[in-house]
């Protein structure tokens, strides 16, 4: 209820008018000067109040609930001379300021809610990928794939920009060697261009085909012609919308595994047996002879993903030698989402595919596909193998930590062991972090 002011009887010292106000269910009598300064004084009392007048000051007594008396003095305006010195302030006589305490506590609660709400909102919105990789070439050289490197004719990249994680694989067409062309140059340049476009922010997360198109156009515009052909598969995670956008051209591809089952997979694109769709740049005399598909021919999909989903992106060297059930058996060995565990599983999958590729008695998926096309083929298919294995996690478990609305920029994937929230200063302290590079410099 708003305060109701009434005029006091005539005769107040110095012609001062007093007013009675009701605030919060309590009545009080005060002068205009006292009304202006009541919050500075910091005291509100019970219902009983009396005013005592003196020569140079007025003394007020108010009873606090429970019988505690609170007392202070205020200067009285008028011609009597300068006001006397004020008596000790409420805190000096044991007066507590409930509205001040309430303000402090309310402010603290609001800040705490904002902090906790912000963290909860960040965790619920932002996902990220922890990715490890492994690759093998036909010449038996193997090892953990490093940034900017290819295995055989395969190439890949992993990049990040603001709200999206992007990764891709490409498989150079080996037939160009018959014409004196290194197939790895085309696939490697294509992937490096895709990576650069992502890091520069020249892409739309919901349009992975656009990444492929822009990269291919840059290759076409090179002053020195870069001859060759390659398949390509691009996977984009929109961290905010929890959606995965993919574009696949040819026989490379991806699997999304949830709860031990394949819930999404790419469709293989073939002109005919063992002739996949491909991006190509051919010399003028070979135009019309070499297969050359448009990036727009890529198969595009968009779907929601969930925390803990496993995304496996690989070239045909994996899928031609390992059926889904074997891949799922290896993925069951993945115990947690830290980088070391993912790296170990990626290596295990690549090693098994590499061994099966050279088993002459193994009925591989490639051999089965050949039989379906009327060819009597048995055994694995020796080929370059590239595997990117990713797990979907909260972004505070990967390369981005969000702390009270500020982004702590860390450029490598990390495992968060402990978070300490110090409420008194509202500062987050993150300690004992293990730093693990997804890719070496």
Explain this structure to me?
The structure is a single chain. This protein has 441 residues and is of the alpha+beta class. Helices cover 24% and strands 31% of the residues. The strands form 8 sheets. A 6-stranded antiparallel β-sheet has the order 7-6-19-18-12-13. Strands 8, 9, 10, 11, 16 and 17 form a 6-stranded antiparallel β-sheet that branches. α3 (183-199) crosses α4. Residues 1-18, 31-59, 71-76, 89-107, 114-123, 142-147 and 397-441 have low confidence and may be disordered. Keywords: Hydrolase, Magnesium, Manganese, Metal-binding, Protein phosphatase.
From the structure above, extract its key features.
alpha+beta; about 450 residues; single chain; globular; disordered N terminus; 6-stranded antiparallel sheet; disordered C terminus
Terminus-to-terminus distance? 68 Å
Mean of all residue-level pLDDT scores: 74
Helix count equals 8
Q: Beta fraction of the residues? A: 25-35%
Unreliable stretches = 1-18, 31-59, 71-76, 89-107, 114-123, 142-147, 397-441
Structural class: alpha+beta
**Rg:** 37 Å
Query: How helix-rich are the residues, as a percent range?
Result: 10-25%
Major sheet description:
6 strands, antiparallel
Number of strands: 25
Concise account of the structure shown:
With 441 residues, this protein is an alpha+beta fold. The chain has eight helices and 25 strands.
Task: Please write out the topology.
Elements (H helix, E strand, L loop, with lengths): L18 E5 L2 E5 L1 H10 L7 E5 L3 E7 L5 E7 L22 H28 L1 E10 L5 E2 L10 E8 L2 E9 L10 H17 L8 H13 L7 E11 L4 E7 L3 E6 L2 E5 L4 E3 L2 E2 L2 E3 L17 E6 L5 E5 L1 H4 L4 H8 L7 H19 L7 H8 L12 E10 L5 E4 L2 E4 L4 E2 L2 E5 L4 E5 L2 E2 L6
Antiparallel strand pairs: 1-2, 3-4, 4-5, 6-7, 6-19, 8-9, 9-10, 10-11, 10-16, 11-17, 12-13, 12-18, 14-15, 18-19, 20-21, 22-25, 23-24
Helix pairs in contact: 3-4
GO molecular function: metal ion binding; protein serine/threonine phosphatase activity
Protein name: Protein phosphatase
Family: Belongs to the PP2C family.
